[in-house]
Amino acid sequence: MAPSEQYKPGFVPDFQPQNAVPGKQHKLDPEPHDRELHDGSLYKPAGKLEGKKAFISGGDLGIGRSVAILFALEGADVSIVHLPEEEKDAHDTVQKIKECTGGKRKVQLLPIDLTKEENCKKAIEQHIQAFGALDSLILNHGTQNAVKSIVDLSSAQWHHVFDTNIHSFYLGSTIVFNASINPFVGHPELVDYTSSKGAVVAFARALSNQLVGEKGVRVNVVCPGPIWTPLIPATMSESSQKSFGKNVPMQRPGQPIECATCFVFFASPDSGYLSGQTLHPNGGSYMG
Question: According to the UniProt record, where is the region Disordered (predicted)?
Fold first, then answer.
């Protein structure tokens, strides 16, 4: 399939269920675009993050993988946090970074589950030990699982989603969170996920008001719409997958590269007068 095919209105990937969350990127067909743009060209870096040290959670696949690749292309050394069982996708990401940067960037893999407080501290400590600085904290990891009725939403799932999606965020010069379109529209089958991502947006705004003046640390949020990542076939029903992305004005799911550029913008000096803000790469849906 030509790269441009996935950018045409009406494109929806075939149904391809996966039985493990967050899913396996190497099993997706077609594979999401990490660096390829809608016209078939490749992302062109401009040294926006030269010499920076970035910590990227969930950087082994989906949006996180594209963020890691673009940050490395822009000149940053990166720590990539991933679940221990996602070893193949994590090493695939490292290989992609080596190939596109000619091996010039340092990459550290941290196979750590961030739902535990001690692991959050451990991950940051290992990043500092490796790179000596933390310039960009990119908290991208997350989980979801569709449930049609809140009556069937277990307390165990509620707590797990919040432990993953917001509690671990509590623990650089820029901080960028990955939230979602769902707090702004209210997904009926993702009550826990939507609530946790709403908390991310609120947390970022409050944290920005505390940090940006006193510490000079900018805090912003990317709120993606329907993006083709392994999390989709791993967590959504067949009917939801078959209509995935059709209801936004562009009538297609987005690609990770179309979100990753937002993270580059928020982490770079280009966004120097922005903090406590949200960007919405969502295919044209207006978020008032």
Answer: 1-43
Distance in angstroms (rounded) separating the CA atoms of residues 69 and 260: 9
Residue 77 parent element (H or E): strand 77-82
The reply to whether 43 belongs to the active site is no
Q: Please tell me the pTM assigned to this model.
A: 0.91
Structural domains of the chain sorted by starting position, each given as residue range(s) with its CATH number in brackets: 50-225+259-275 (3.40.50.720)
Burial class (CB in 10 A: 0-12, 13-18, 19+), 132: exposed
Read off the tokens for 12.
């929806």
For residue range 201-252, list pLDDT tens digits in order: 998 999 999 999 989 999 999 999 999 999 999 888 888 888 999 999 999 9
Q: Residue 54 is inside which H or E element, if any?
A: strand 53-57
Name the catalytic one among 7, 43, 193, 273.
193
pLDDT at 247: 93
